[in-house]
Amino acid sequence: MPNTHRARTRFRLLIATAAALMLDGAFAAAQDNATKARLWKDPGAIDTLDLFWGSGAAERAPKAPFAFLEEDTSGTQPKIRVRDADGRQWDVKFGEEVHAEIAANRLVWALGYVVEEMYFVPGGVITGMTAGRRTKDDVGADGTFARARFRLRDETSERAESRWTFESNPFVNTRELSGLAILMTMINNWDIQGTRNNRILRIEGEDRYIVSDLGATFGKMGTGLVPRSKWNLEDFKKEEFIEKVENGMVDLDYEGYGGINKVPVEHARWFASVVGQLTDSQVQAALRAAGAADAEVTGFSVRLVEKIRELQKAVGSTPEP
C-alpha cells in the first residue's frame, strides 16, 4: 500500500506539473499573440511623407492593359477584379466612393494606421469585360471606364474571416484606438460597422487591424434614419467635429454606425500631436491623389485643417508623440 500511495502521489504531481506547464504555455502563447496584433505604428517624421502615393509608389501603380477576371457582388458599390500588364490582380471599385476612399486611405496611412495599397485611375480600357448587373453604368460595351479605385490584391497578406468592432478588439482603452475614433470623426466616416467594414489582415505572422472600407467619408454623417452623403464638399464643410470637453473626456460629434463618441483628453492630446504634423500641402496631395477637382482640393483641405486646429485648441498643449 505505501508504494501504491507514493505512486499515486507522484502521478498527481506529474499531472499538476503538466497542467501548470500547459497553462504557462497558453499564457505565453496569448502574450505572443497579443504582441502580433497591430493597429498603429509610428510613421516617423509625418511632415516628410508623400501623401500622393501613400503606402504605394509610382512604379507600383496599376499598368494597362487591364484584363477582366470576374465581377464582385459584395457590398453596395459596383466592383470587378482585373489583372494588369504586370500580372498583378486588383479589386476595382466604381461609383460614388472612389474619390473619398482614396483620400481617406492616404490620411489614415500617413497617421500610422494600417491600410491597403490603392490608387485612383482616371480611365482606361478593360479587355474581355462581360456585362455585369452593377457595372453596366460604369464600364462601356467596349470596356472603357472612367474614375476607378484600384486596390492591390497583395499575395503576401490574407484577410482573416473574423472582424472587429471599435467596442471589441485588443486595443480598447488605448490612445491609438481613441486616435482612430477621432480620425474617423474628422473625415466623417459614418459607416464603421465592425460586422462588415473592419477587417484583420494577416501579414508575416502579424494581425493588422484595419478599417477596410473608407468610402463613406467626406460628406454628411448619419444612419439609416438620418440623411447622409459621401464625397460632398458642402455637406462636409457644415458637419460639426467636437461637441465639448468635460470631465476629462472629449465628446466627438460622431453620427453614424459605431459607438465612438467619447475619448479621454490625454488620448486626444496625443493624437493632436500626431495629426498636427500634417502640412497643408500634404492634405492637398492626398486629395489630388484621389482625383479631386481643384475646388474640392481647396475646400476639403481647408475644412480638414480647421478640424485639426479645433482639436489642438480643445485639448490644449500638444506634446511630442
Molecular structure report:
The model is unreliable at 1-35 (pLDDT under 50). The chain starts with a helix and ends in a 6-residue tail after the last helix. β10 (242-246) and β11 (249-252) form a beta hairpin. The strands form 3 sheets. A 5-stranded mixed barrel has the order 2-3-4-6-5. It has helices spanning 2-35, 98-110, 175-186, 233-238, 265-275, 280-289, 294-315; strands spanning 37-38, 66-72, 79-83, 89-93, 118-127, 144-152, 157-163, 198-203, 206-211, 242-246, 249-252, 262-264. The protein has 7 helices and 12 strands. The chain folds into 2 domains: 35-52 and 157-315, Phosphatidylinositol 3-kinase Catalytic Subunit, Chain A, Domain 5 (Orthogonal Bundle), CATH 1.10.1070; 58-152. The protein is globular. It is 34% helix and 21% strand. With 321 residues, it is an alpha+beta fold.
Describe the structure in brief.
The protein is α+β, with helices and mostly antiparallel strands.
Uncertain residue segments: 1-35
Mean pLDDT: 88
CATH domain class name of the largest domain = Mainly Alpha
Q: How do the strands of the widest beta sheet line up side by side?
A: 2-3-4-6-5
Helix content: 25-40%
Total domain count: 2
Describe the protein's topology.
Layout: H1 2-35, E1 37-38, E2 66-72, E3 79-83, E4 89-93, H2 98-110, E5 118-127, E6 144-152, E7 157-163, H3 175-186, E8 198-203, E9 206-211, H4 233-238, E10 242-246, E11 249-252, E12 262-264, H5 265-275, H6 280-289, H7 294-315
Parallel strand pairs: 1-9, 2-5
Antiparallel strand pairs: 2-3, 3-4, 4-6, 5-6, 7-8, 8-9, 10-11, 11-12
